[in-house]
Amino acid sequence: MASFDETIEKAVEDRLIPGVVLLAKDKSGKLDYARAIGRRSLRPGEEDPMELNSVFTLMSMTKLVTCVGVMQVVERGLIKLDDDVASILPVLAEQQVLHGFDDEGKPILKPRQGTITLRHLLTHSYGQAYPFLDAKTARYFEQTGRPLFGNSKTVEEAFNYPLLFEPGDGFQYSPGVDWAGRIVEELTGTKFEDWMKEHILKPLGISALTFFPEHHPELLSRLVPLALRDAQSGKIVANPAPAASLTVKEAFGGSGLFADMREYFAVMESLLKDDEKLLKKETTDLMFQPHLSPVSKKACIEEFKGADWAVGHFPPTGEYDWGLAGLLTDGDSHELRKKGFQQWSGMYNLSWFIDRTAGVAGVFATQFMPFGDKKAKEFLKLFEEEVYRRAKESG
């Protein structure tokens, strides 16, 4: 039987997936797995190999870093998890609830009754949806003339649209962490990029994470281009479209980071080891606890029964909740994952997990579309299993 390394190398060679960076460590320091496999780019004439310092577009893997920054301001007493955020970001006070459409197709909007709290934003339970994941929100965009994938420069410009339900009454994956990043800016008077540099990167002795890669040519030169799965051949091919504009006016805390994966992993390792370089142990403990209301938890479990859109491995255990950084395993029935295992991912089929109880963490980084790719999910699962196997052997 082929080893994991042989299997993943063959998959990259056969273009079942593009080049990858794989990182894993355990809490003891005995496991330290790092591989860069394949080419950084599949474009003709670009033969550079994938390197451990290659730079990835993180998309929603950004949320982990932003959530750390948010919990730092919670630690400092600038805000509580259950505080109403409307006074900090008045635009959130104005958001109504979309109750459907009338006979003429016009949106039916009603004033919101409940308050939006910071906890709601961090756990995707405040009511908003990404338009590409929700038909009702997409229809609202169509009816009001908003482009589904706009080139918005600010968080407010991108995400100022109605909710689907009252805060705390459901679960819908959302731009809540983008709003939370803006709250950090308002509370501290500091741009989130600068807060991240001073309070996240500096304590860890790292620098290769940014929301503004256009200001960092040394990172842009190592950027991994987006690839695509060809619908006819099933193989991974270079993306023929030109790269999207990278210019935004402010940090998008839910999707905007670019990073060297080793330095991203340093953030994960700090949480895994409870070294308190970023957060007090009790704050990290809080991040790895369930935070959904009973009705929101039920909706979350239902969502992940058939989450074809989501990047990752979601066994049908029904044991899910949301922590303060990602999807939380809230039970003991999984053969490898322990209760409190937290994971999330990015649209371009990259993913992270941290299991503080088992003492392991891993990152699977690649860059291709479509999101939620079945092959990517297969290899993510194999990678996770390999990390636990190696941790057991090294222990």
Structural features, described:
GO terms for molecular function: hydrolase activity. Keywords: Hydrolase. This is Putative beta-lactamase family protein. Residues 4-372 form the Beta-lactamase-related domain. With 395 residues, the chain is an alpha+beta fold. It folds into two domains: 4-61 and 191-394, 3-Layer(aba) Sandwich (Beta-lactamase), CATH 3.40.710; 74-188, no CATH class. Helix content is 33%, strand content 15%. The chain has helices at 4-13, 62-75, 90-93, 118-122, 135-144, 155-159, 176-188, 192-204, 217-220, 261-273, 281-287, 294-303, 374-394, and strands spanning 20-26, 32-37, 55-57, 97-101, 107-110, 209-210, 227-229, 236-238, 258-260, 320-322, 327-329, 342-346, 350-355, 360-365, 368-369. A seven-stranded antiparallel sheet has the order 2-1-14-13-12-11-10, with helices on both faces. A three-stranded antiparallel sheet has the order 3-9-6. The protein has a three-stranded mixed sheet with strand order 8-7-15, with no helix packed on it. The longest helix is centred in the C-terminal third of the chain and has 21 residues, at 374-394.
